[in-house]
Fold this protein.
Amino acid sequence: MLMFGTVAAGPENIPPPKAKYDEDTLCVEPVEIMRRQHFEYILDHRDRTVIEGIRTKKHSLIGCIDCHITPNDEGVYARYSQETHFCASCHQFAAVRIDCFQCHADRPAEAIREALKPDQHARRPVQELLETLQFSTAVFTK
Amino acid sequence: MRDTLDTTEEISTGRRQFTQGVAALGGLAIAPGVFLYHAAGAKPDDQAVSSQQRWGMLVNTNNCHEECDACVTACNEENGVWSLGRPETDAQWIRKLNVRDRQTGHVTSMPMMCQHCEHPPCVDVCPTRASFRREDGIVLVNKHTCIGCRYCMMACPYKARSFIHEPLQDQLPHSPRGKGCVESCTLCVHKVDQGDNTTACAEACAEEGHEALLFGDLNDPESEISKRLEKYGGTQIRADLGLNTGVRYQGI
Amino acid sequence: METARFSTIHANSVQYWILLGTLVLGALVGYLAAHHMDVEGHHITGMSNQIVWGFPHVAAVFLIVAASGALNVASISSVFGKVDYKPLARLSALLAIALLVGGLVILVLDLGRPDRLIIAMTVYNFKSIFAWNIFLYVGFIFITAIYLWMMMERKMNRFSKPAGFTAFIWRLILTTGTGSIFGFLVARQAYDAAIMAPLFIIMSFAFGLAVFILVLQASYAWTQRHLGDAILHKLRVLLGVFVASVFYFVLVYHLTNLYATEHHGVERFILVDGGIYTFLFWVVQMLFGCVVPLVLVFIRPFSQSRHMISLAALLVIVGGLAQLYVIIIGGQAYPLVLFPGMEESSSFFDGVVAQYAPSIFEILLGVGGICLSLAIVTVGIAVLEFLPESLSDKALKLESVTP
């Protein structure tokens, strides 16, 4: 399991995928093909989903994320900005820049819901920064 | 290159069981639309949508309460469209619109969103075909080809579209959205595709007991929406533009 | 006239390098501003979901409109056979290309996803005026470049007339396309008017010529070349005619709108109670951009002064920017009408006039595009033979005129 989750070049501490898709190929296609051509499957599927409404999971980005992005020993899901994220681990090494995760979730739905839980979406990073700034100016005015 | 790839996907029962097994294994909260399978009568996952359906909405403004915004809240929750504290640049897929007759003072309250036109001006003006109308009548933005020129926002008569003015985080898996693209109501396309036969706003409205929103297939004469429209009629907003909207209103 | 001698300017003075350095710096700052907008997102600009096109579009549309107008001087010589203008044709074509490039760069950098320019260049929706414009703009640069080549290469001179004719027709279609961006927007009260296309064409005549006059005067004054009164006063009269034509089209546009009760709201907004837009319309566009230039170019003693001609051209440019500001931003500020005759209100600013003030980043981007255009001209006239060595009355074999 570990072997197919981590790419040879990536860091070793990437949590393994949830399960083997298939006993022979491990992933949705043979691992060797997936390493080199996964984006072609994803791009092809992307247009089918957006334009034609085809919603199969096999080659969908949601399917990849759901299986490959799992929590580490502390129960924390990696973000794409971290090198322990399955996708980032290889992209960073290969100096590949993608914009998928500017819009798409880089973690499974349950992780996102968890992240949004405490007081829902009231506190966004920018607002937190603003609040900190306001706090610091308040200190100065006192 | 792509031709060499086998992208036809047979969905064997074995694989379904596997996926469901994973979901159960995790014992985690399951997001709607991620692992759940269809209601009876929904199109299979691997089948493209067709023009046999034309999805639409019927808004009965007589049942819509001015102070209620359950539909807006539900939409925001469902699609992860939340405020960043800047009303002028925050996205709004659906909004409550109050219309007051200057002569009589009568106020009509209604939800306003993408009207899913048959002849959408946004699709006409989009230079890259990113704004498009799906076969089943749902008007969407393909955010992979949207260049963020905002011409569609200039063209839309309903002010239905929002431009994303800043980087976003924690988007929901079924509702990808991000900086620099234009977006609008998707008619809960992810729910439609899994055969829910309703939208988040319509569900919320029904939960409130107002039942002012009805989702359905305008092409199916047996659907509730078609029956009601046939019996009571429905108005298009800015019907003068001849766009043949998929969202119809009663009581305006 | 065939004997006009062209030469490059000598780019060895300190002043030349200061000028070029300033322009390049301006363009660079504009690029950095755009980059910042791209990283932070458009929320740092004055633009919003109400005003989706802001100051960058005003600057870009001005440059694009002026670009097609700047080519007019060349068209007058090759299409309409006025040989007096022939020595000016090369500069006219160079200016046209430079202005268009500056305008396009602004438009591209203001996109939400400028990184996807390749998509705009490869995927087309032929029902979109925007998609047409991408063709028209790229084609314009290409055709004008060929036209320049025909004019500048002696062996090709005989083809310069057909090339000039093609460029002329192309520029008319191009400005029709630019005007139609607004003319075809059925949803908006201020835009749904077919007169937008001819209005934009006549605006291009005036703005393009005004830019041309300023660039011509500056380049001749700063390089100590002789610019005779005769040719300058021909351009002066032409500018007056174009400005008067713009006035006529603006008048017809508003009169037509005023006749239809449906448009009274938006007309009242622009003409009476629109605040900044009303001010820009009456004071900057009509008074300083139209009436004052007409006085300056047609009434003595102003019309006899070169400085006054420059001032008139400058005012036409300022008035033109104001006019586009009123059309583009004023037109969006006025709320959409979903229910005619009703009062609308919502959390999404329905029924209220939208607020807009350009941010520093938008202004820097707009000014950066203008700097880029002028930098291209500055480099152009130094590396290739665009400018005649003399435009004196004698060199042009024109009779000296008393304006």
Notes: The beta strands of chain C are 6-7, 226-227, 342-346, 387-388, 390-391. The longest helix of chain C spans residues 229-259. Chain C is about 65% helix and 5% strand.
